[in-house]
Amino acid sequence: MTLNNDRRIGRYAVLLLISEDPKETKDSIERLGWRACSGKVGSMEASKVVAAIETAARKNDIVQTGLYRESHALYHAIIEALQGVTRGQVQLGSVLRTVGLRFAVVRGKPYNNSEEGEWIAVSLYGTIGAPIKGAEHETIGMGINHI
Question: Tens of pLDDT along 114-126?
Fold first, then answer.
């Protein structure tokens, strides 16, 4: 099992997230035969962040709605990314924190051996803090899971 350095799925998810030209980055991702989407979400509830990312991934054909293994892989990648954003404690409103995030989801085959299958990466970047304007700081998180 060898990860192809030119096909690092997490790197592409972060690049799509922070790119000055997301269309160019998405075009690069699609040239690899991969799929990607991005969007924004803000909430005091982690469940709304998860729902927004899952909805975008389904609408953009990153995961198929009827296949549990695909939704399951996406869910775990989202939760791993949220753990990075929230420093290991996936809590927001219950501890009076809110987030304003951009997200990116990338699906593809990052290994030289195609039998390793498809993987999914979720990256999050934005702000987290008290629900008071100006009382937030930057945050970033990434999660990767096999499908």
Answer: 899 999 999 999 9
